[in-house]
């Protein structure tokens, strides 16, 4: 098992009122105005970047064509007297439209460009210290445990080692930086899980690593192996996992911080071939990400603990590997979900809902006030909403609340309906339910309707389908690199914050 200390780590983050002698680069924000590009903010840190230095720097930036457009990068030699070697200006867009998410994205782009830099300082902290810190940490994130000496990053390819955030006084922003770094580290934890290849992260190993992290944080942990799952009637998890030589697990992690109770559930398919209903070979390697929901949920309960949120959070995380073999479940088989509902398995590639249903019923035995499940559940999510917008379904009031909070933190969840007319298409001729409809219409919504069958009346419930947003198969953008993104950790912690504030 890989030790906790072996996880990927971002840059060291710190606050400072002056530039250190070993600072290599100063990162400033540049906005577009009617009079051309301007440094923002323009009214703080005069001791570091006074009026004369500011004017000289703007003149240099304009001379090389800097405009200040969002995420535009311009690096120039530092004006004499600034005390650093160079200045990196990162665009923030129109001055009247700069928000936390733009700062986060611009900081991420800046961080990614600072390879080989020892120490960088930034004035972006004068706009929003927390957003800047999250952006720098996540933008600098890399995952290299499986690179040998032949392909390991050279010194000039290494991410920036330290980022200092200029503040007006020594005590300013301490809590904001702590929270931002804690959140970014939780997102990085989720990314690490997702980016670890399935050869090294299978159900038993995933459960062991999650258990190690949770116990190190002082949390209650319960792990059920395949024998316990079979004995206790977790038919969905057993059914999905029985085609693999690496048996399934269920892990439960509890943080008890307050009277309100929130159940978090995450889909933990460590690799998804589709089972007997096998997927096409092209791009199947991306199915290493099919445990992105589980990764986010585990990271979130650890983050809630670190932030001492006054709310009780219990994560229930089913883990299985969906493989085709002589022992795999077949299309046409009937299984019994935990709690007694019988299901005809029409398509073995609709496996996520089977393990989630077991977990939802188990989590509901704790009588939570709120229940949130997260899954890389359907390709239909990407057809409907694209690769960067999670679909949010559930009880209407809570669904809309989760979507709103997701948009506020930049993860952009979008509320989706659960049309009643699709429910009849989940009826089975031989069992209580079928696991898919006989058509492709509203596939994301049909999956949500399936899960709804297992949510008790009166529980405020949200289902997040993050099939596309949890894993970036394209090039880097903003503070998102290639591979695991950590979505929707920041949405989940925002929701927990909101519940705790009730």
Task: Provide an overview of this structure.
With 502 residues, the protein is an alpha/beta fold. Helices cover 32% and strands 21% of the residues. It contains 13 helices and 21 strands. It has helices at residues 51-63, 100-113, 125-139, 174-195, 203-216, 226-232, 235-241, 292-306, 352-364, 379-385, 396-408, 443-452, 489-500, and strands at 12-16, 25-33, 36-40, 73-77, 86-94, 119-122, 162-166, 220-224, 249-255, 261-266, 268-272, 312-322, 334-336, 342-344, 370-375, 391-394, 414-415, 433-434, 460-465, 471-472, 483-484. Strands 8, 9, 10, 11, 12, 15, 16, 17 and 19 form a 9-stranded mixed beta sheet that branches. Strands 1, 2, 3, 4, 5, 6 and 7 form a 7-stranded mixed beta sheet that branches. A 3-stranded mixed beta sheet has the order 13-14-18. Strand 6 (119-122), helix 3 (125-139) and strand 7 form a beta-alpha-beta unit. Helix 3 (125-139) runs parallel beside helix 4 (174-195) and helix 8 (292-306) crosses helix 13 (489-500). The chain starts with 11 loop residues before the first strand and ends with a helix.
